[in-house]
Design goal:
Layout lengths: L15 H4 L2 E4 L6 E2 L2 E2 L3 H10 L3 E6 L6 H10 L9 E3 H10 L7 E5 L2 H9 L3 E3 L8 E4 L8 H12 L4 E3 L5 E4 L2 E4 L1 H12 L4 E2 L5 H11 L4 E5 L2 H11 L2 E5 L6 H5 L9 E3 L13 E3 L2 E4 L2 E5 L4 E5 L3 H16 L9 H7 L2
Parallel strand pairs: 1-4, 1-13, 4-5, 6-7, 6-8, 8-9, 9-12, 13-14, 14-15
Antiparallel strand pairs: 2-3, 10-11, 16-17, 17-18, 18-19
Helix pairs in contact: 4-5, 4-8, 6-7, 8-9, 11-12
The structure holds magnesium ion.
Length: 342
């Protein structure tokens, strides 16, 4: 089959946790949400690791250090070392270190995660545009970042000091709703200066490179909940991916995904690591998975049969993505998704 949920031989007939050597897991919406573990995450990761899979956590959030993230995961019941955590702060620090002299000063707009990552690369974090920085770096600074920090960044960037951003996620989920993320903070400086930063985080290559360098993964599987960061990052790196539906992506967004946003596998949650993924087959009647058959009509996607709702979604993805080719499917899948309760 051509454009369906790509069912490479790796994930058919054997658990993903044994077909791939390393899981590169996103955190928010995959492992935890609002500080609490997502259902089935703790047990599934434990079983995957016991079976020999290496677990690494890859986050665009540059605020917290790997130590802090590892402590949080360990408290949730997922024993984790700092070395198992890769942040966009580390990726951007490496990117900066390749473009400025050794030991250079870097003006930091952000949190401890950035400062620690810069020192790890031998760079010196400074706080003022008057400290003669060789670069400016912006990462998520949390709710207490003062407005004056954007002014410092703008003074230096407007002078022509090279500007870097850990990531450009526009929003960040919190227990109380959606808050502005580092991408929104970057926009503030962009509006003030008209300049353009170099960005490291998912879905861009510097983050993927940092992850592979630090984990040594040979057969990695990216696991995420977001199409435009996790799944696109995997696509850009030429790596297989598993989308879980415990975060921000729903069935409608998935069916409309252009090629760079199409995951290799789809599952409800991290239990998907422990199973072989079902095959989607195509014949004259449509795309079949489990007990379902999906077809693309002129104006809508149609679904017939019965069975596991995830199998229905997999069949629908194959029908939608094949119909859309290199584009984005605009056929109405609402009724079919409603049948699946998705
Ligand atoms: Mg996420």
């Amino acid at each position: 089959m051509s454009q369906g949920v790509r069912t490479g031989p790796e994930g058919i007939g054997q658990a993903l946790s044994t077909a791939y050597d390393t899981a590169l897991l996103d955190l928010d919406g995959v492992v935890y949400a609002g500080g609490s573990a997502i259902a089935h995450a703790v047990e599934s990761l434990e079983v995957a690791r016991a079976g020999g899979m290496r677990l690494a956590y890859v986050t665009n959030n540059a605020l917290r250090t790997p130590d802090t993230v590892a402590e949080h995961l360990t408290e949730l019941g997922i024993p984790t070392e700092a070395d198992d955590v890769i942040t966009s702060a580390q990726a951007v620090a490496r990117l900066i270190s390749e473009q400025v002299p050794a030991g250079a000063r870097v003006l930091v707009i952000g949190g401890d995660g950035l400062r620690v990552a810069l020192r790890e690369r031998g760079l010196e974090p400074v706080e003022s545009a008057d400290d003669d920085p060789a670069a400016v770096v912006q990462g998520y600074g949390g709710l207490d970042l003062p407005w004056g920090r954007f002014a410092e960044a703008s003074y230096a960037v407007a002078r022509g000091v090279p500007w870097f951003a850990s990531n450009t996620d526009l929003t960040i989920p919190s227990g109380r709703g959606i808050a502005p993320g580092n991408g929104a903070a970057v926009e503030v400086v962009r509006i003030a200066t008209g300049a353009e930063p170099q960005v490291a985080g998912k879905p861009l290559p510097p983050m993927h490179r940092e992850t592979i360098l630090r984990t040594g993964a040979e057969r990695p599987l990216v696991v995420g909940d977001r199409l435009d960061t996790d799944i696109e990052g995997a696509f850009n790196g030429g790596v297989d991916s598993l989308l879980v539906l415990t975060g921000v992506t729903d069935g409608r967004q998935l069916l409309a995904a252009p090629p760079r946003h199409r995951p290799t596998y789809v599952d409800a949650d991290l239990r998907g690591l422990l199973t072989g993924q079902p095959e989607v087959t195509a014949d004259g009647d449509g795309f079949r998975c489990g007990g379902w058959t999906a077809t693309a009509l002129s104006d809508r996607l149609e679904l017939e049969g019965e069975g596991e709702s995830l199998d229905g979604l997999r069949a629908l993805c194959a029908a939608a993505w094949t119909a859309a080719g290199e584009g984005s499917c605009d056929l109405d899948g609402g009724k079919a998704l409603a049948r699946l309760g998705l």
